[in-house]
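Predict the assembly for these two chains.
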Amino acid sequence: MAIKKIAKVSHNKEEKGLRFTRRMAWIFGAPSIVAQSIFGWFPILVAFVVAFQKFHIVKPCTYTGWDNFAFLLPSNNPLTTLVFRNTLYYAALSLALTFLIPILIAILLMEMKKSVIRVMMILWFIPVASMAGIIIWKYFYNTQYGLFNGILVSLGLPTLRWLNDSRIVMLCLVLPGLIMYGPGLIYIATLQSIPDELYEAAELEGVSFWQKIWHITLPRIRPIMAMMLILAIIGSLQIFEQPFVMTTGGPNYATYTVVYYIFDLAFQNLLYGKATALAIILFFVIMALVVIQRKYFRENIDV
Amino acid sequence: MPLIAKVGRRRFKVRLLIGAITSILWIGVALHLFPVWWMFTTSLKPAREIFEFPPSLWPKSPSFICYKLIFELSAGTWAGGNIRVLDYPIYVYIKNSIIMAGGIMCLQIPFTALMGYALSKLYSSRWSRIVFLFCIGTLMIPGEVSLIPSYLILRHFPFPTKHIPVIPFTNILFPHYNFLDSYWAVILPGMYSAFNVLLFKGFFDGIPTELVNAARLDGASELGIIRRIIIPVSKPVFAVVTYFSFSSAWNQFMWPLIVIRNNKLMPLSVILYKFQFALTQAPPTGKTPEEQRLMAAGVGYNGLMALSFIESIPVFIMFLIFREQLMTGIKLRGFK
């Protein structure tokens, strides 16, 4: 009887405590929820209004139906096709060349001695401010004084026009990503959480080097790879700074990207509605790619 | 060393493999460091060495004159005439960048830490899922969708239109503020970061709930739990978040370029871009007069590299401070 009563009391106490923690949850979450509402979700809702409006500087904005989207139709506007082709080309090139390298580096780095890992970690991930990095590379590519042409000349080879050559300019924009291993940090952190015992057990069973990578390492970092792939797709489709600073969209529109076009529409021509309409189209393209990615690259691990 | 078997390490083939891996890694390190080194050595070169072709790998007569020139040039106290590439001295822009990045960090880190804790330990599992999706959902949506609306919202905060509604039954307009051309235009949208919530929740999920519940039964308040239990074990994740949010705030470029038109309030990244533009954007007819005068004064790519180096220093310092924690603080589980 007494035990039952105590149990009931403590149950009540727990209930009350639980309700209290639920309330605390909302208090703790409030600043983030407010900020996320005002600067996260509210602008997105507004975007779907702005995209159907024509912006006037003094007069009130007027609704124009699907006009902004019609303006962007490939049949009306050849730039739309161009910017999407450039952006997808950049995304494909950068994912193909730079996505796997940090993973490989992280896996190989784990083979080193602990002391070597510590030293290499510092050297590997020494950061440069992003604008500084872009400008250094622009200097490398400079046709008159740049390092790359300098190397070609001292080797007795013909010089290249780098950023002025529309055939290789996209490759030039991707190249800096090859030796920036930022994402490697996240893979290393994940790899370190794999218990050594797994590898030791595999070793006793005579599992080879490649089999260990394939059956132990990769399944563990797969969820992170899936996430990083999504972020890389989204990030590379939003490419703006590199072409804006290095090539200003040239030569002959070869590096004119979607976000660059959005930027020009909005802040050079004050066509807010059309710019937002293009941003919404970009959003749906990204969504489509993410859905495809999730279909073929499940996050679940079945080990 | 998990992949290579512990037995048989002396075998020639295995030693060859280890040697190959080591050399690949060191070559990668060298490639990664080369731009940094190039930036530094170029900034030490005097003007005439910049135009040597092919460029030299180490300055023949290194000097810090360029750094001095950069500060003088921007201040407009130039001996050789009034060249003013930048309207204000460099330290004004350094200060701007520090205020913006600092403001963002001061708001973002506590906000998202509390959210991460609430998601991991306070909400019921159903609400936790819903709020979590609310918190990270915007990660999937490209920032450009909200670019123009955010700009409009900041102009008549919090209304996205020019026409401010009237408070009912009066003819007073709702209070509204124009945050454009102020530090707030950069700080306010940076108040929250979905990626931080992801990092915090991932890490707090690893702290046993029993520990928190036990403290709660002992009568500890939630803030007490955070202070006594969560913070002492979460130093790594705080380090990671500090590093990430600092470097992303410091590197912001497009947003400040849009919302800040006042030259005095621009951050360093925008100024670096403008300086670069003035220096390298040669018109088809040759060099601009501005550029010619700059180069006559001894500032060319060396000045650009000096400014780039100055911009990179804070990110680099942050990295050195937090490097140990960066390895242990990241506990992500994908978008789950």
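Chain A touches chain B through 113 residues (CB under 8 Å). The CA atoms of residues 201 and 300 of chain A lie 23 Å apart.
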